[in-house]
Design goal:
Elements: H1 2-8, E1 19-20, E2 27-28, H2 48-55, E3 103-111, E4 123-128, E5 140-144, E6 152-159, E7 165-172, E8 176-177, E9 180-181, E10 184-189, E11 204-207, E12 211-215, E13 219-224, E14 233-236, E15 241-242, E16 249-254, E17 260-262, E18 273-278, E19 283-294, E20 306-317, E21 322-330, E22 347-357, E23 364-368, E24 374-378, E25 382-394, E26 399-408, E27 418-422, E28 426-432, E29 441-446, E30 450-456, E31 464-466, E32 472-483, H3 488-499, E33 502-504, H4 507-513, H5 527-542, E34 562-567, E35 573-577, H6 584-595, H7 598-614, E36 616-617, E37 632-633, H8 652-659, H9 662-680, H10 702-718, H11 721-739, E38 742-746, H12 759-762, E39 765-769, H13 782-785, H14 806-825, E40 829-836, E41 839-846, H15 847-865, E42 866-867, E43 885-886, H16 905-913, H17 928-948, H18 966-975
Antiparallel strand pairs: 1-2, 3-10, 3-33, 4-7, 5-10, 6-7, 8-9, 11-12, 12-13, 13-14, 14-15, 16-17, 16-22, 17-19, 18-19, 19-20, 20-21, 21-32, 22-30, 22-31, 23-24, 23-27, 25-26, 25-29, 27-28, 28-32, 29-30, 34-35, 36-37, 38-39, 40-41, 42-43
Helix pairs in contact: 2-5, 6-7, 6-8, 8-9, 8-10, 9-10, 9-11, 10-11, 10-14, 14-15, 14-16, 15-16, 16-17, 16-18
Length: 979
Amino acid sequence: MFRLLLYLIVIWLSVSGCGINPCTNRPYTSVYDFISSNAGCSTPTETLATQSRLDDRKSVKRNLSVKSPKKELNVAVIPEKKSSSTAPLISTHEKHKFIPLVSGEIPLFVNMGTCAPESNYPISFAVPFPVGAVRNILNLRLVSDNGSAVPAQFSPNVKWPDGSFKAVLLTFYPEKNGTAYRDYKVLYGNSVHSLGQDSSKSIKVVEDADSITIDTGTTRFQMSRNRFALFDQVYRGAANERVLREPGDLTAIDNKTGKLFRSSLYKKSDGYRLEVVEKGALRTVVRAEGKLRGENGAVTADGDRDLATFRIWLTFYANSGMTHLKYTIIDTKVRPGIASSFPQPVFSLSDNRMILPLTASDMSYVVGGEAGAIYEGKVTGEKHILQDAIRGKDQKTKGYSYKFHYTGVGNGERAPGWMDVSSERGGVTVALRYFWQNYPMKLSINDRGNLNICLQPEDALAPFSTDYPGEAKTHDIFINFHEGGYTSDIKGKAELYLSSPVLLASSEWYKKTVVFGPLGELSDKTWAWDKKVARQYECSAFARGCSKYPVLYGKNDFGDYQLGYDTCKSGDWSVNKGLNHYEDAHGWILEFLRQGEKDYFDFAAPFAMNHYDIGVMHTENPFYYPGVPAGMIHWHGGNEKIEGGHIVPGGIDEYYLLTADPRALEVIREQADWIVHKVTNGWLRMAPEIPGDKIGLEEYERPHAWPLYTVLKAFESTGDLKYWNAATIMIQNAIDWWKLPQHIIVFQYGKMLDPKVPASDQAMYYEMTDWIKGNGYWVSTLRTANCDQTNLPLSMYDYQDHVPIAWMAAYLETAIIRYYEQLKIMGGNYSATITYRGKPKKFSIDAAAIREMIIQTVNVIVDHNYVSNKYPSIFPWLSHLGYDHFVYSACPERSPKVSDGAVQMPFVLLYASGFTENEISERWRPTWKARQGKWRDIARTLYRSEIENRGQPLTGYNGAPLLWNMPYAIELFQKYDLL
């Protein structure tokens, strides 16, 4: 009875959310009329584009508040159960105590950017849920704003540790309502019951040993299990008209040899696999994996029969001829030798295309041009649109510049990337997302009926080449088999696909779920932060309002930054690519969820894709890590080996949680598996743990922060216990390192040290750390304290400077906080026997120990590295300075005017200040209120100086660092009424 009462006790507050401008189809947020003129922020560099963006956010808004349903409605579609990648649920000492949210409704609206709505166009986007809210997919249903039932498919994505659903992919066909789509609501709860879909309107799947057939109701797709030919046959309409005169193909030309390689030559007996990975009433997904095999026995320059691996996901929709393809080509060859002998280029294609041989004759074409233009005519000979560009060097910015151009049936700069080929009986539309950005690209049709989707055109200015083994390239492709000739809605559907429509809930809902972290809601008090983000977007996306670091374009580079330039031996210079350093996709997606600004999501998506293609080595690295699986994450300083302080997930986890992108999930697992292998074999650790261990130059905060953060994000995206266990090992290492007695030591710059005299007797500052006394810390070495070396070699560890460094500590603190929050969900403690260094070892983590570690280490950071008259540093050479910031490095030879940590530390300070007196140890209780006030005051000072009073954005060495955990700080600033 008591449990029943708990299930029935829930109160949902109705808070206004974000809306959409009916004229521009761009999202509005509330109470921003005054934002551009507020006196708290300077505006000299603000552009008209930024001003327009801010002025758009006025009083119009949609009511997206979370509510309880008023009545029972029998609406929904039950898809056949999808195979889940979620691992067995975690068990802990303490049974976690949840009060499930019994029922509610989630208002949603479709944002398609500047496109017009189209009928019979499917939308697939994920809806997150709080822990414990939805335990059965049958307790979900979709209704429109007029209360009518809406057929929908809910596909499980990932679960919370208690087994409830964290994110569910929603697929449905929105209904047009004038110049927009209708608004919708997802109802959830124990009292919500979905009904089955009419089987006559559902996708039908027929599988046998040799083929898979997908019947959507309007179109039937046949695919062979013996080899990949894109489609063996497509039947259109009630008459089952054959669309293809023969099976299609996927082909590539090896640029090194000029030889042709085909997917259709790689057979089932060679390892080709075709499988249904999601089966539903409205949406079904098929996955193909194989290799491109040489025609007529051709081999690569290395003597291999196969050129590369391909993976393709084909998504089909009920009552539609549309299919969405995600195509990834991967250089999976393991190359022997040493890193310095990498062949250049490693992998190079002069042609890569998908071929659809159409049966139709007397065809006409229509091709999209820039600014809404179309080019049309009869198919005679070969008709095409070829997008290319000339990349040059901009001597002023020391970066790349681009001259884009497309040719063929039309001419211009940037083609949108779609083509329709039709006869009176029917046709095919194809579209390539990021067509001009991923230049070169091409779409063509010839009078034989061959429709070519050219992902690397043979007649482009340059081939597609990779710099290091294991790189990949992913393309998103739209194919629509339609009845009848070309009509305007065909163009509309292609443009909708290219615009990547999204499905939005309110910022209140995203905050309430905690799926993406503690997101602060939009309010009139967050004006300074939201304005700063808008300016940062103009800088990062368009280099407006700032003078450096624009984005890169082209197949290798789109979705990455130019970090600057390196001077070559010849005296020339080359652009230093960023490899998504650090977490820009993550940050922009957080702000997309906070503000409902689709532009932010659109900017984030290519960063996530570039990271899962180029930022990860998708094969083994035998040069430095023999026997370690694929998944090594590149970093900007050299792609041959790992530098632990630059291992980042790249935002692909947030991207996956919202889109269910299957390639993102593969790479999330791939990069986390690499870390799991290293961690469980004793690498990427902190404290000495076996006889003979020495504290080395890798013992500092950041190389342990990012691997920990990456496996935690993998756990949150998959629910797989092995990632949690790897994080647990790293947390134990952090606790051991914190408890290890060490010294904070600083020497006078330029002083000659005598190795015969104890280091402490020669230091200008010396302090022993001791967690029992309350000043435990993970002491940094010279390397990352950013201090100069003494006259003694680095191997003489005790005779080098060792100081905390705030901005690096912030990364580790934030990762530890992320673990701690998951631990709370699991009951507050976790014990497990984990295979470590080849042997079973018992690990036991308690929340109280983590809280004490956070408090002590934050206290050390503030006392040493914060420079202020009000809160003076205990370092004597910093104690008289009143800069009110964290110094970049506390070493005396470094200028204390140089700061860092202003955008990373506020979240850490606010979070640590939030522990209640019954959560902290006796040591802190007498001074806790004063310490809370101090940390919050410092956080507010940093926010005022960095966000309110500094208008200039920055996109540089760390990407846009303010976006990493500051969106979390915004929530705590609001919680403690500090804005």
